[in-house]
Every structure is written in C-alpha cells, then in structure tokens.
Amino acid sequence: MASISASSLSRGVASSCPRARMRLEQQFSLLRIGPAHITNKPAGSQILAQTRYRSEQIHRPEPPERQLVPASLANTSDLEMDAILEKYTSGALSESSQSGSDSEGIGGGPAAVNFQQLRGYARAVPLSPSYFTRAENFTDRFLALQDLFRRYSKLPKLPLQEMDRVAWMSKDKFQEIFHESVKNSVYQRYLSMMKTLHRINPDLKPAAVTEFLREFIVKTNFDENLPKPQTVDKFGRALGVGRRKESVARAWVVEGTGEVLVNGKSLSGAFARVHDRESATWALRSTERMDKYNVWALVDGGGTTGQAEALTLAVAKALVTHEPALKTALRKAGCITRDRRTVERKKPGHLKARKMPAWVKR
Predict the structure, then answer these.
(1) What angle do CA 166, 170, 176 make, to 5 degrees?
(2) Distance from chain centroid for Cα 112
(3) Which end of the chain, N or C, is surrounded by fewer C-beta atoms within 10 Å?
(4) Which UniProt keywords apply (predicted)?
C-alpha cells in the first residue's frame, strides 16, 4: 500500500513542485526501510529494489585500537617518567601559547595543554595491593602477619609463667588511628596470632617479628591499674560488699564472740529459713571462725535467698581483709567467687521464661 500511495501521490504533485515530490518519496521510504536508505532516486526504481528484508549490511565504524605502553617506557622509573611528562607538558604549553594567542585573547584564560602529544600511557598505580579492599591498612598488616605466622610459628616458645605481661592495642584504638572498621572476630584472630609469635624464645625470635609486634604493644604500668587493697580501719572493722541477683549486701566484720546482726535484727529474725541462715554464715562456718568475729550487715533488694547469698560474699571479702591466708579455703568453699546467674526473662507467648500454655486442638 505504501508503494501505491507513493506513486499516485507523486504523480499528483509532480507537475506542481518537484521538491515536494522528492520530500514525499523520502517520507514513504522511511516507512519501509528506515532513514539509512533515503536516496534521491525516483520512487519507482527505489520501490522495485526493496525487498521484505534489508539486503545491505549496516557497516558500523570499528572502535579505535587501544593505546598501549611503548616498549621504551615499559621499564621506566617514576622519576624518569615525571621528567618525560614535564618535558612534553612544557613543549605543549609553548606550542599552544604560540599558536593559540587569538583564542587566549578572546577567552581571557590560559591556553589548554595538548596532552595528546604524550606518546606513552601513564596512570597512577596504587601503592598497596589492598587498595581496593574495605580496610586497606588492616588487610596489609593481616597479610604480613599471616606470612610471619606461617614461617615462624613452629619455633620454640616460652611457658606462659615465664612471659612478661604486655598490653595489646585494642580494636577501638586501632579503628581510631587508621579510621577503618574491623570485625571483632577478625581482630581476635589477629591478636591470637600476635600472642603466639610473642611467646617465641627471645634468643630465637627473628627481627622481623619483633619489629612487627612493636607497633601493637602498648606501654602500660600494670601496678597503677591494680585495685587498692582493703584495710582494717581504726575501729578494727573490715568492710565487704557482695551481690547476688538483685540483692546487695554490705558487711562490717570485727573481732568478737560470733554475734550477727542483719538490718538491726538477729539472724533468725532476718532469715526465717534455716537454709538462708546457714548461707549467710557459711564463710565463717567453713573456716571455723564462727566464734571469733562479729558481723553487722545491711542487705537490700531481691528476696531472702538472694540477700543471704549476697551476705555470704560480703562476709568472705571482709574476712580475707582480716586474714589473707584464708582466701584459698574460702575459694574452695565457694564463698569468694560471685554467682552471676540471674532470672531468665519471660518470653512473649510463654507463661513463664520457658513454660508454654497447654496445646488445644480446637
């Protein structure tokens, strides 16, 4: 239908305007074969030459060949490359200043540098192979540490008792210095390998290991961080503080005849259960000091069982202040170590922490 319309319309407008006829033929040719085949031939010969499919192949321009580094510049050092770039840049500037004076006067700015005169291919090479990783500084050090660990981890090591105490750089400090985020698990592996290398016998430890570990060892005076020892005051009292669950107990122990007051009450008045009374005085009973010391205690929070067990820890700490030699016996009796167990929280949909409601079919 396009050919019939083109021939009939072209004959109608041929006598009036040849240019209109040519424009009309071009528009109908666009409907059939597209703009790539528009010609100035008559419509009849053009339509006869057309088929259902395009017989001619579309020739696309080939992409330009990639410019490679010349062989003369392949092994050039950085200093030599800088000299070559400066030479070509200065030459391009002089030529552009001589030939482009007109454009410089029009725009008012300096002439552009023609960098196409550089025959070499220059690009910035990252200093580190880990440049494109998430944590460049940490990855470089981690790979170096793995290499040292692979080579020297089998060397003889000293026992832990003979090693000097050292403080290692924390993860937060590392992130503050290098501004990189590191996972806790990865940093713990990092510290584990460094501690293993640190245990190598100093007579056999390579200099590379010592130099690497020096960056992560923090100078610390451990004597300054020790807690202050408890002492007996001028009244002969020793204070001990203990906690259990939600309960807190403070006990003042002084040499006496074995009297115990809890919140101003006797032991039986403060704790009705026998088990709680025995727990409160277990530190004195296990060391056979029940009749040699008096105890005045304040307990708060929680229930009676928690208060009694908190009082056990408080009395034990105060007793160690009077007699440090009893610490081993009290530890064996379980009076020195704090019990950190707490009540498990209730979950949604449960009756208690773990108890579920009865299952009903319907």
Answers:
(1) 135
(2) 45
(3) C
(4) Ribonucleoprotein, Ribosomal protein
